[in-house]
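Figure 3 (text version): structure tokens given as input.
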């Protein structure tokens, strides 16, 4: 009653054993592909983590620089500006990670929150009545009167260019992991599992437990079984080329490090621009939002928590160097994996599975 290992000679197999063999080849094939994938997956996962750490390090550095700017140059509004600054860098981090947001919305939201503070603490430092309605009016007015000039738009342009490549790379790496995971769990067809049993276990039914498949026979079976997986070859090569393009873009005109370190200067220039145009801004705001209550003298800057100046050059150089090194290592490794899906059958037939150094092997029907 054998379905797969039919042979003229007497056999020690049963139909139940054939079923066990089919379960075994499915399990073994999954384990073999997982073993092949492991190094590649480990490399990608490791670099996703390394890139994230480098991104976060650069973001923290840029955030500290920005906070320090407010502490030193704009003390009257430093405490209240802390939350908008934090939100801006959180939004940037989420954007890089692939969240459904834009750099423009993050930057403009920041300047919307900043304008009421600049207006009430720097341009008109006597204002006491900063009610919710008045603050909201100032936020909305910012969009019409553009108190920060072209600096807010410039910041959007610079960050959008550099963050785009980082965001795309982050998404591409996640996609790579998804592809690898999918190929690991690709189901074997009934024909394939039967062919694998015939190749690996039918000799056992003749008592030939040490004989192994011939190389050519193994390659034919594996190529047939993995036809759908090896079809990924062209797309995988294209994927590697895309990764190469993105890493080059990150290192060239879209340099993430330079853009992030420039946020502080952009915000500083924007605030100075608003201060220089203070009288005109006040006249417009008074017409739109009304005149708020005033008090004599400047507001106290008590309760401001000082931020220590970050050791700029050291932190920045370390993060910058780390990111550049990771890029180079990663793309060098990925380029070596270009033929990963084209050569998967050869790699599975390599090693202990087939007989290479002997003239005796199993051809699917007999020992040759």
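Below: residues designed for each position.
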């Amino acid at each position: 009653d054998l379905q797969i290992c039919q042979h003229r000679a007497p056999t020690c197999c049963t139909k139940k054993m054939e079923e066990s063999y089919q379960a075994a080849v499915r399990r073994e094939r999954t384990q073999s592909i997982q073993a092949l994938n492991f190094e590649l997956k480990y490399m990608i996962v490791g670099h996703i983590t390394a890139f994230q750490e480098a991104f976060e390090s650069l973001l923290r550095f840029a955030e500290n620089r920005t906070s320090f700017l407010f502490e030193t140059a704009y003390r009257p509004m430093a405490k209240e500006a802390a939350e908008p600054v934090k939100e801006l860098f959180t939004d940037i981090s989420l954007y890089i990670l692939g969240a459904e947001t834009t750099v423009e919305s993050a930057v403009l939201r920041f300047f919307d929150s900043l304008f009421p503070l600049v207006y009430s603490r720097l341009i008109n430092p006597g204002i006491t009545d900063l009610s919710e309605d008045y603050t909201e009016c100032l936020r909305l007015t910012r969009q019409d009167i553009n108190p920060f000039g072209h600096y807010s738009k410039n910041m959007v342009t610079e960050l959008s260019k550099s963050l785009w490549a980082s965001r795309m790379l982050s998404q591409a790496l996640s996609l790579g992991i998804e592809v690898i995971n999918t190929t690991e769990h690709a189901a074997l067809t009934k024909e394939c599992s039967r062919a694998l049993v015939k190749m690996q276990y039918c000799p056992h039914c003749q008592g030939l437990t040490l004989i192994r498949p011939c190389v050519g026979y193994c390659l034919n079976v594996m190529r047939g079984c993995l036809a759908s997986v090896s079809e990924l070859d062209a797309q995988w090569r294209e994927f590697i080329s895309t990764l190469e393009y993105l890493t080059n873009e990150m290192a060239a005109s879209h340099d993430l490090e330079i853009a992030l370190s420039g946020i502080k200067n952009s915000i500083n220039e924007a605030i100075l621009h608003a201060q220089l145009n203070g009288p005109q801004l006040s006249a417009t705001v008074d017409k739109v939002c009304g005149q708020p209550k005033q008090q004599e003298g400047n507001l106290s800057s008590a309760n401001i928590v000082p931020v220590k100046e970050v050791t700029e050059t050291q932190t920045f150089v370390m993060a910058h160097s780390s990111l550049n090194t990771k890029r180079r290592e990663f793309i060098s490794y990925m380029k070596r994996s270009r033929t990963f899906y084209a050569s998967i059958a050869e790699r599975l037939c390599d090693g202990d599975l087939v007989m290479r150094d002997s003239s005796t092997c199993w051809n699917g029907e007999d020992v040759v």
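The chain has one domain: 20-292+317-349.
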